[in-house]
Design a protein that fits this description.
By secondary structure, the protein is an alpha/beta fold. Helices cover 16% and strands 30% of the residues. The strands form three sheets. It has a seven-stranded mixed sheet with strand order 8-7-6-3-2-1-17, with no helix packed on it. β13, α5 and β14 form a beta-alpha-beta unit.
């Protein structure tokens, strides 16, 4: 059975493996504070239907309460340990969703699929307050294939060891503004991450979707080019990796080879 990956925009993607639907960092709105969706139609209502939802960290563009409220009642949502203490608004969605907090190394099962939380190098505190230190996570989804969702992360020394063998990597290659802060991957650093992880295939995410209102003319290449730049740069350090550059809402089918 092929594994299917659909990219809805930003860090929001659906991974369907072994009949299980996993949704990552759902952001299903046209506007978030100062950010406006500039490219790609909004995900359709069915994008909010999942067996398991993975939240990588507490930033509002990854842990978006309004988008979580659109999930079907009873949906299981996996978050970094300490999320409920750090984000009081989660109490509202906890009344109708099943929230599970995890730390790196812990696993969650959904039918035949196992999801393992892995470390990320990123300041995952809820801003602007963020007095509680809650670690950012990535996740490895293992069923017919092993799919790595990196969330937001920079390169870190033992990245390949911490993540382990993977078949497909969903890697962030940009951001939502003209300048990336520390502990992010741009196209070049994402290509280096690919060389360390050595999956069979990769899907660039976290680019070309949201941008600050009124800043369309500020460094527009940082909005438009990261996906293509990543695909170009990856050919040198990771020539054996197939990069699937998806449009918003586009799906790729990946045949299992294990």
């Amino acid at each position: 059975m092929p594994v299917e990956v659909t990219w809805w925009g930003h860090a929001t993607a659906t991974v369907r493996d072994s009949g299980v639907t996993v949704l990552t960092d759902p952001l299903l709105v046209r506007r978030l504070a100062h950010l406006r969706r500039r490219r790609g139609a909004l995900p359709p209502p069915q994008a909010a239907r999942a067996d398991l939802v993975l939240i990588s960290h507490l930033h509002a563009d990854h842990l978006h309460l309004g988008s979580l409220a659109r999930l079907d009642a009873g949906t299981r949502v996996v978050l970094p340990r300490g999320a409920r203490r750090a984000v009081p608004g989660l109490r509202r969605v906890a009344r109708r969703l099943e929230l599970t907090e995890v730390a790196p190394g812990q696993t969650v099962e959904a039918g035949p699929v196992t999801v393992r939380a892995v470390p990320a190098s990123h300041d995952g505190r809820r801003l602007p307050v963020g007095r509680h230190a809650v670690p950012a996570l990535g996740y490895v989804i293992e069923g017919e294939e092993r799919t790595y969702f990196a969330g937001d992360t920079g390169l870190f020394e033992d990245m390949a060891q911490a993540v382990g063998p993977v078949d497909t990597a969903l890697l962030p290659v940009g951001g939502w503004g003209p300048f990336l802060g520390a502990d992010h991957l741009d196209a070049g650093r994402a290509a280096e991450a690919l060389a360390r992880l050595r999956p069979r295939s990769a899907v660039p995410v976290h680019f070309g979707t949201y941008w600050p209102v009124g800043m369309d003319a500020v460094r527009p290449h940082e909005f438009h080019s990261p996906g293509l730049e990543f695909k170009r740069l990856a050919t040198h350090p990771a020539p054996d990796v197939t990069v699937h550059l998806l449009e918003h809402g586009e799906c790729v089918r990946l045949e299992a080879d294990r």
